[in-house]
TrEMBL record:
Residue ranges constituting the Cell envelope-related transcriptional attenuator domain according to the UniProt record: 106-247
Annotated family: Belongs to the LytR/CpsA/Psr (LCP) family.
Name of the protein in question: LCP family protein
Keyword entries, A-Z: Membrane, Transmembrane, Transmembrane helix
PANTHER family (alphabetical): POLYISOPRENYL-TEICHOIC ACID--PEPTIDOGLYCAN TEICHOIC ACID TRANSFERASE TAGU
Organism superkingdom: Bacteria
Stretches that traverse the bilayer: 31-51
Pfam family, one: LytR_cpsA_psr
Keyword Transmembrane applies: yes
UniProt cross-references to Gene3D superfamilies, sorted A to Z: LCP protein
InterPro entries per UniProt: LytR/CpsA/Psr_CW_biosynth, LytR_CpsA_psr
């Protein structure tokens, strides 16, 4: 099993020459979108309170129509292959983003969360933003350019083609939500592999209790480390583990009001498709009632190193043979088996 999820920007490159000018407050960029997973897991084990928590999410999250997200009305969720949720992110406030006109923007955080039908685990695949793929109507391009070329519907289609099956839900979150969730829990204890300083904050080797601003600095820093993005990825993993442990703890799960307030504070920073509602969350929570932090598995999309496109862009190449295995796993609801036996890394 791979434990090197690279999240939003494993590769930091200059903007593409073909990229359209972007307004400062309308840039979809780096974010720890995996927090949606934690919110869903946060309602596990709450029993009779699950429905109320789901309703709180439903009443406070920002809902997008099927046409805005998928380009058409959805007929329903696929069940045979499990559930796949596309997670996109922004470090700009989502209230400043026109979701009806996302062309010209880039989705620099792309992750797919897979919920197996048996409800026994969760798998999360991170897709590097510069992954060189087929984008319908535009030939080969970076996967994050799909949002720029055709808005959310084309981004959804492109990622669906990449994993070889349908996406059932889509969620977008910004960093304000990240900080709000951290602070709503009274801070998160994170085990840091290295000591470092950034933005006036000091992080010691070992355990650190972080508030929202400190946590944001911790998960974003890379220049302090010899292996840059790889250490940042490990720090992000460490934070996720700490956050998950905090939410799925006796103190949290035994306090329905704390969970209710957590979701209420966090949900306003989320934009989700209309199907990701109270009914879905409560049903998912019941089905996943036995999931624990150790059942959340991370892996990276099968890539084969960096390269250069015919027009001179720096890109991430796809390991096509391994991708076929990933697509089979998503199609057949065997992603957990794939992760358990996957190569350690493709980079």
């Amino acid at each position: 099993m791979t434990d090197n999820t690279t999240f939003d920007d494993l590769f930091d490159h200059q903007p593409d020459e073909q990229q359209r000018p972007r307004k400062k407050k309308r840039v979809w960029r780096k974010v720890l979108v995996i927090l949606l997973i934690i919110v869903i897991l946060g309602v596990l084990g709450v029993g009779l309170y699950v429905w109320n928590v789901g309703r709180s999410f439903d009443n406070n999250a920002n809902k997008l129509s099927d046409e805005q997200v998928f380009g058409k009305e959805k007929s329903g969720n696929a069940e045979d292959g499990g559930t796949n949720i596309l997670l996109l992110g922004s470090d700009e406030s989502m209230k400043d983003v026109d979701v009806n006109d996302s062309r010209g923007l880039r989705s620099d955080t792309i992750m797919v969360m897979h919920l197996p039908n048996d409800g026994g685990s969760v798998q999360i695949m991170s897709i590097p933003r510069d992954t060189w793929v087929d984008v319908e109507g535009h030939g080969k391009a970076k996967i994050n350019s799909a949002l720029s070329y055709g808005g959310l519907p084309l981004a959804v289609t492109t990622v669906s083609d990449f994993i070889g099956t349908d996406l059932d839900h889509v969620a977008i979150i910004d960093f304000e939500g990240f900080k709000a969730l951290t602070d709503s829990l009274g801070g998160v204890t994170v085990n840091s592999e290295q000591a470092f300083e950034k933005n006036g904050y000091s992080f010691t080797q070992g355990e650190n209790v972080l508030n929202g601003d400190e946590a944001l600095t911790f998960v974003r820093e890379r220049k302090q480390f010899k292996d840059g993005d790889f250490q940042r990825a490990r720090n992000q993993q460490a934070f996720i583990r700490g956050l998950t442990n905090e939410i799925i703890s006796a103190d949290t799960l035994s306090n329905p009001k704390k969970i209710q307030d957590m979701v209420k504070n966090f949900a306003p920073y989320m934009y989700v498709d209309s199907g990701l509602d109270a009914k879905y969350i409560s049903g998912t929570a019941f089905n996943m009632r036995d999931v624990r932090p150790t059942d959340i598995e991370f892996f990276t999309a099968p890539v084969a190193g960096v390269g250069t496109s015919p027009d001179g862009q720096s890109i991430v190449n796809v390991d096509e043979d391994e991708l076929k295995k990933v697509q089979d796993a998503f199609t057949n609801d065997t992603v957990g088996d794939y992760v358990e036996n996957a190569p350690e890394a493709h980079l």
